Amino acid sequence: MKILIVEDEKALPGNVLSYCNRGDIVCEAASGFREAEDKLAAFPYDILVLDIMLPDGSGLDLLHQLKKTQPEAGALIISAKNALDDRITGLELGADDYLTRPFHLPELNARLKAIYRHRKFQGRGFLGSTALGRGLQTIKKISSKIKSAAKQLALSTNPMGKAGLCRGKIFHFKSSVS
């Protein structure tokens, strides 16, 4: 998962970056509108985490641009503004979630994973970067093979005198008892 954090406050991106840059999450930061605009033009991101109030532009304008150029990317607004109108505007412009400050990093992490899961896996869960959907398909295939092998074994060990199937071939068992 590749995330761009757009926040002018110096401490917040640093904390989020150190918390998120582990495992299979890659986090980058931009301190303003222009820098974020440049990064979004240069690289695709899975999720944009942005503040509404930036020194050189509006985070909502950045969100609007993101939805035009990378509509598949998720967006999470983090802001000290907790007014209902601000939250509704952000969500209507295409944000997937809105988190007011202060917040806990585990909550941010959970929300980022939820956005990623909904965007990339149509709501199905994931473990790290492996989709459970693919894992379940593998399990179903293995289960099917086990059932098939068990059926073949059952057919091949039929009582004597009956036809059986073993590894795809039909055998006739002869009874030695008269």
- The CATH superfamily of the largest domain turns out to be Response regulator
What sort of overall outline do the alpha carbons produce when their principal axes are compared? elongated
Task: Report on the biggest sheet.
Answer: 5 strands, parallel
Helix-strand sequence: EHEHEEEHEHEHEEHEE
What's the helix count? 6
Residue stretches low in confidence (pLDDT < 50, at least 5 long) are 126-131
Distance between the termini: 71 Å
The overall average pLDDT, rounded, is 79
- Please, how many domains? 2
CATH class of the largest domain: Alpha Beta
CATH architecture of the largest domain: 3-Layer(aba) Sandwich
Q: What structural class do you assign from the helix and strand content?
A: alpha/beta
Provide the gyration radius in Å.
Answer: 27 Å
Assign the CATH topology of the largest domain. Rossmann fold
What is the percent of helical residues? 40-55%
Strand element count: 11
Strand order of the largest sheet: 2-1-3-6-7
Strand content: 15-25%
Provide an overview of this structure.
This protein is of the alpha/beta class. It folds into 2 domains: 2-124, 3-Layer(aba) Sandwich (Rossmann fold), CATH 3.40.50; 133-172, no CATH class. Helices cover 46% and strands 22% of the residues. The chain is built from 6 helices and 11 strands. A hairpin with a 2-residue loop joins strand 8 and strand 9 (130-131). Helix 2 runs parallel beside helix 3. The radius of gyration is 27 Å and the shape is elongated. It starts with a strand and ends in a 6-residue tail after the last strand.
